[in-house]
Design a protein that fits this description.
Elements (H helix, E strand, L loop, with lengths): L2 E6 L7 H16 L3 E6 L5 H12 L5 H25 L4 E4 L1 H4 L1 E3 L8 E4 L2 H8 L3 E5 L2 E4 L4 E3 L4 H15 L4 E7 L20 E3 H9 L7 H10 L3 E5 L7 E4 L12 E5 L2 E10 L4 H11 L7 E3 L6 E9 L3 H15 L2 E4 L3 E7 L9 H11 L4 E6 L3 E7 L8 E3 L5 E3 L10 H12 L24 H16 L7 E8 L2 E10 L4 H10 L8 E7 L2 E9 L3 H15 L4 E5 L2 E9 L6 H12 L6 E4 L3 E7 L3 H11 L4
Parallel strand pairs: 1-2, 1-9, 2-6, 3-6, 4-7, 9-11, 10-12
Antiparallel strand pairs: 4-5, 7-8, 11-12, 13-18, 14-16, 14-17, 15-16, 18-20, 19-20, 19-25, 21-22, 23-28, 24-26, 24-27, 25-26, 28-30, 29-30
Helix pairs in contact: 1-3, 2-3, 6-8, 7-8, 9-10, 9-16, 11-12, 11-14, 14-15, 16-17
Protein name: aspartate kinase
InterPro entries: AceGlu_kinase-like_sf, ACT-like_dom_sf, ACT_Aspartokinase, ACT_dom, AKii-LysC-BS, Asp/Glu/Uridylate_kinase, Asp_kinase, Aspartate_kinase_CS
GO molecular function, one term: ATP binding
């Protein structure tokens, strides 16, 4: 008999009627032959109300005492849900996180799970009880109550499902929410957004970390680590939702599955940074020590002994980040600049591993909308761009990707969010309202032949061994290091920073059938940008020629440089961005060997860097040792 873990969020247990409906769903699952665990959040606005109560007492409450306070919300929910199940004629028992043995670290308000003791849980299941469990909470090794922070109840549900699976049960996890499933983008912004039947762990992990709010990335990390099938579905219906599962071949048939928008980030640019080993490590190590998660990182190719590093952090961490970096910036003789309000728009899809022209399609859609790109980074299956919100032009003429002028009278006003406009444009450009093939169906075209992806093969092969090395369930999972010495780089210096220019460059490359891998764009001066991207070494000459031809039309003063003597290293795993220590360990290991980094890209499933080709093997060896993968 398998186990079903059902999670109900605050809106799904907000009142007595909702609690009774959740109880009915749990009972139906039991009558269908499953053992059932129900994970619940605090009712409705309870958590916000508790925070407000604390605010009436003090403006700076102790994190430990806030955990004591906030954990009471879930305790109310579990008792009421167990009572509802009793009222409907079934047996149930409720447990808090500490009672069930969810042990965390001692980082109050955002603790991470270290282990779960399933003995009491399994005993209750085996005696026929529906177990009702408090989400969002646990206990540290000192016996103090802890809470898990954002997405804590989702994280609890998937972590418990993983623990039960490790205890020998077949398991699946259902996340009940107020939407029908995972959509291609936020349907509140794009009305024709489509619910997906299925999405891969990696795609969902990137979507969640890039701004899709249906699930938090921490819960997806657990699902991928421990191979827990998830379904996101509507609490108010019995309709099938969206499965989140391992990647299937049909998922690679089209380049993109979804688009996400994040509007809560701030961008910082370190200019005039000495281009030498160890500088990146120093910058990101101090942020990691302060537990500040850095999102987009774009380090441009150094010139004249100086480099530029751009990165984003949450708006709530901006002031602390600037304060922490101030001494290092002064010591390096660099400048730390904060840009205006920004939004991040990301396109995600497994198919971009194999299909050329993805960047070109995205950038063309944004150019037509007159949206300028202040920063670009890529990952294995995502492209993210930073859009500046301040100072939007109201009218006038911009240059389309074809070089012809187009009117901007159709654009939204200065007060509107450019990120939303960009989101709509990219969603339409990839025809995401159209259906992707359903789970298990073969590709529609017999001509499509997925190429083996060494990153996926390495990550899958080493996953079980990596899990065995974890000291805590929620520790970062680093499963492998991959070296690619068959790449080359094209860099465009002093590209005019205006809409359409990136689109024209990548259109020229894509029409040559050249697959672009890493992309980094940073500002390099007033109204200027530096654009770098990698292509297979065999295609360098063609890529360089096509880029030179189009850049000459844009601005003859631009310089285009090719470099075939590079190596690209990828550190693979789960939660690579949200766990602050990954970049610190990676950059620190390379710095200790005196290996300089000339490009950086980050995502949830891999961190990539470019180094000299001659030192590629040495870099691979030192990273393998640093992450204890040997």
């Amino acid at each position: 008999m398998g186990v079903v873990v059902q999670k109900f969020g605050g809106s799904s247990v907000k009142d007595a009627e909702s609690v009774m409906e959740a109880a009915r769903k749990a009972i139906r699952a039991k009558h269908a032959g499953s053992k059932v665990i129900v994970v619940v959040s605090a009712q409705g606005s309870t958590t916000d109300d508790l925070i407000a109560k604390a605010g009436q007492i003090t403006s700076s409450p102790s994190a430990r005492e806030m955990d004591m306070l906030l954990a009471t919300g879930e305790q109310i929910s579990i008792a009421l849900t167990a009572m509802a199940i009793h009222e409907l004629g079934e047996r149930a028992v409720s447990f808090t996180g500490p009672q069930i043995g969810i042990v965390t670290d001692s980082t109050h308000r955002k603790a991470r799970i270290k282990k779960i003791d399933t003995v009491r849980l399994c005993e209750a299941l085996d005696t026929g009880h529906i177990v009702v469990l408090a989400g969002f909470q646990g206990v540290d090794e000192l016996g103090d109550i802890s809470t898990l922070g954002r997405g804590g109840s989702d994280t609890t549900a998937v972590a418990v499902a993983a623990a039960v699976k490790l205890a020998g049960y077949e398991v699946e996890c259902e996340i009940y929410t107020d939407v029908d499933g995972v959509y291609t983008t936020d349907p509140r912004i794009v009305p024709d957004a489509r619910k997906m039947d299925a999405i891969s762990y990696d795609e969902m992990l990137e979507m969640a970390s890039m701004g899709a709010g249906v699930m938090h990335s921490r819960s997806i990390e657990f699902a991928k680590k421990f191979d827990v099938p998830l379904m996101v579905r509507n609490a108010k219906s019995d309709a099938i939702g969206t499965w989140i599962v391992p990647e299937a071949a049909w998922m690679s048939e089209i380049p993109a599955c979804g688009v996400a928008l994040a509007a809560d980030e701030a961008r910082l640019v370190l200019e005039g940074v000495p281009d030498r080993p160890g500088v990146s490590h120093r910058v990101f190590a101090v942020l990691a020590d302060a537990n500040i998660a850095v999102d987009m990182i774009a380090q441009s190719v150094g010139e004249g002994g100086k480099a530029t590093i751009g990165f984003t952090v949450l708006n709530t961490e901006l002031d602390r980040t600037k304060k922490i970096l101030a001494p290092i910036v002064a010591e390096l003789g660099a400048a730390l600049n904060e840009t205006g309000k920004v939004s991040k728009v990301s396109v995600v899809g497994a198919g971009m591993r194999y299909i050329s022209g993805v960047a070109e399609r995205m950038f063309q859609a944004l150019a037509i909308e007159g949206v300028n790109l202040k920063m670009i980074t890529t990952g294995d299956i995502k492209i993210s761009v930073l859009v500046e919100e301040d100072g939007a032009a109201e009218s006038g003429i911009i240059e389309a990707p074809t070089g012809e002028p187009i009117k901007k009278s159709h654009l939204e006003s200065k007060k509107a969010v450019r990120g939303r406009r960009a989101l709509r444009a990219v969603h339409a450009a990839f025809a995401l309202p159209l259906s992707r093939k359903g789970a298990g169906e073969p590709p529609a075209s017999g001509e499509f032949k997925p190429r083996p992806n060494p990153l996926m093969v390495a990550a899958s092969k080493d996953r079980e061994a990596a899990i065995a090395r974890l000291e805590g369930m929620e520790d970062v999972l680093v499963s492998g290091v991959h070296l690619n010495t068959e790449q080359s780089r094209v860099t465009v210096h002093d590209l005019p920073d205006k809409p359409g220019n990136c689109s024209r460059v990548f259109n020229a490359v894509a029409t040559g059938g050249i697959l672009v891998d890493m992309i980094v764009q940073n500002q390099s001066g007033p109204a200027k940008a530096e654009l770098s991207f990698t292509v297979p070494r065999a295609d360098l000459t063609r890529a360089l020629k096509r880029t030179q031809d189009v850049v000459r039309e844009i601005d003859p003063a631009c310089r285009v440089v090719g470099d075939g003597d590079i190596a690209v290293l990828f550190v693979l795993g789960v939660g690579m961005r949200t766990h602050t220590g990954v970049a610190r360990t990676m950059f620190g290991a390379l710095a200790a060997k005196g290996i300089n980094i000339s490009m950086i890209n980050t995502s949830e499933v891999c961190v990539g860097v470019v180094v000299e080709r001659a030192r590629g093997e040495e870099a691979h060896a030192c990273l393998t040792e640093a992450f204890k993968l040997g």
